[in-house]
Specification:
45% of the residues lie in helices and 21% in strands. The strands form 2 sheets. It has a 3-stranded antiparallel β-sheet with strand order 1-4-3. The protein has a two-stranded antiparallel ribbon with strand order 2-5. A hairpin with an 8-residue loop joins strand 3 and strand 4. Helix 1 crosses helix 2. The radius of gyration is 16 Å and the shape is globular. The N and C termini lie far apart (42 Å).
Length: 108
């Protein structure tokens, strides 16, 4: 498998500058964990999406926020999946909830 080394190094530098008390070696380690988890997470999301029968675009709450949308009040997640979180360096999983495009509205 090929990795985008530039992206990994940029993420390591961002983590290093953002996190107080974190040395660069640990930031690089966390960045590598995240890079290795990306294909696994994408596979898990796609499998859960197919299992739920969703054909629309899906993102997490923060994913929609980053894209300039907000999840409508009272909307329930269409599915949730366990993903690997590499930014903390422990490689533990967390539960992420996903919302469809029809459940969000553009931020005014």
């Amino acid at each position: 498998m090929k990795y985008d080394l530039s992206k990994i190094m940029l993420k390591a530098w961002r983590l290093y500058r953002k996190t107080e008390g974190l040395n660069f070696g640990e930031a690089l380690h966390r960045s590598w964990i995240s890079a290795k988890a990306e294909p696994v997470n994408a596979e898990r999301i796609e499998a859960a999406k197919q299992e739920a029968g969703i054909v629309e675009e899906v993102k997490t709450w923060s994913g929609w926020k980053d894209a300039g949308f907000e999840v409508q009040h009272g909307s329930r997640a269409v599915f949730a999946v366990s993903l690997i979180h590499g930014s903390r360096g422990d490689g533990k999983s967390y539960r992420a909830s996903f919302f469809t495009r029809s459940q969000v509205q553009a931020v005014a």
